């Protein structure tokens, strides 16, 4: 990944999708996991994806759904990347790659640390996201442990990020990327154009060296 990778997740409307693209997001996410206020049908996502330039990665977010469903919904919507946000095994990621999709796999820090060494080494060759235990809830988690022992591969920080805290966390933890949903919403499930712009700018801001 060149420069800080910024992903805006949980989009469902053309205006906020356009704001994310115009602000310079590297990736835009559509939630296909059921039961979220952000859940979209593949047909709606397809109409939105049609307006996303090729330089921007389109990501479908899934959580513990059958692999056949994931592949079917990802194909119907036209996303290029599948983000797993549950307990999906590594074999599911391999199957997706064989189908031509890229992947992202989210872990809570606890879940990631609990992986057997052999498992962790394998996941670290893929793109992983470190997130709060409850995804999409705007909750932060204790990142102090990440300062001492970050993952060896490129990793993306998520969980309770917003335009106010993202710059500091990026400078402190040096992730390869950041992912946000709640922190760019005016109310749960409703994205805000101004907050999206502020978030992307803040994520890529220079550190404040004036004390
Ligand atoms: O957004 C959801 O409701 C959701 C539901 C099920 C699985 C994943 C979900 N969202 C993932 C994300 O939006 C982000 O990748 C990440 O969790 C950050 O969310 P937030 O803390 O709200 O910024």
UniProtKB/TrEMBL annotation:
Residues 6-201 form the N-(5'phosphoribosyl) anthranilate isomerase (PRAI) domain. Pathway: Amino-acid biosynthesis; L-tryptophan biosynthesis; L-tryptophan from chorismate: step 3/5. It comes from the Bacteria. Keywords: Amino-acid biosynthesis, Aromatic amino acid biosynthesis, Isomerase, Tryptophan biosynthesis. The keyword Transmembrane does not apply. It catalyses: N-(5-phospho-beta-D-ribosyl)anthranilate = 1-(2-carboxyphenylamino)-1-deoxy-D-ribulose 5-phosphate. HAMAP family: PRAI. This is N-(5'-phosphoribosyl)anthranilate isomerase.
